[in-house]
Amino acid sequence: MDAEGAEPGMVRPGGRTARVRESVLRAAGDALAEQGFDRLDLADVARRAGVGKTTVYRRWAGTAGLVADLLADMAEQSVPRTDTGSLAEDLRANARLVVRTLADPRQGALFAAVIAAATCDPRTAEALHRFYAVRIAEWSGCVDAAVERGDVPAGTDAGEVIRAVSAPLYYRMLASGDPLDEAAADRAAEAAAVAARAGVYVR
Q: Are 103 and 165 within one domain?
């Protein structure tokens, strides 16, 4: 563990170190999307990033630490939530963002690789859980705002509403192979909004 309990590679650097980190994480994302977690190799990532192998090994120690830092960076760089004043519109924006991400050739392949790795690698699973906790917390604000407006019942579990939007979209990517498009996004958002208004997600 590094300073403040962070995993190797998780301390936020500045200057040249920040540029190295950015290059390495971009290279790691490319490698994951192309080859999957099983073939992720720190030496290959270093070559792709144009940095020395010792730099990568010293900073990240192993592939799990590198993936954890990649997911932390992705959470930081993710698009902020929408605030339209309408729960249905906010959830639709969230669902369409999920679809754009999962349908993107690079990003979709990257997420699929990390999710697959998380099923058998505890550190990757922990990093993935942290990533989604950040994103769910970010988007939960639109549900909390809807509660304050009286659009959905008091006590509505905001995180559960956001999970309900994403779940059918991830199912399409990982299990059914059904189309991932805006129509699917809009149906998922509407179903979650209707259920929330009906009190399904009240704790």
A: yes
Question: 156 pairs with which residues across the strands?
Answer: 202
Buried b (16+ CB within 10 A) or exposed e, 179-192: ebeeebbbebbeeb
Residue 36 within a domain:
yes
The last residue of a domain, from among 36, 54, 70:
70
The tens digit of pLDDT for each residue in 83-96 reads 899 999 999 999 99
Alpha-carbon distance 146 to 144, whole Å?
Answer: 5
Contact 189, 94 (CB under 8 A): yes
Answer with the one of 13, 35, 70 that is the final residue of a domain. Answer: 70
pLDDT of residue 1: 26
For residue 60, the surrounding DSSP H or E stretch is helix 53-60
- CA nearest to 45, candidates 56, 59, 61: 56
Q: Are residues 90 and 189 in the same domain?
A: yes
Specify which residues 202 forms β-bridges with.
156
Q: Is the pTM of this model over 0.70?
A: yes
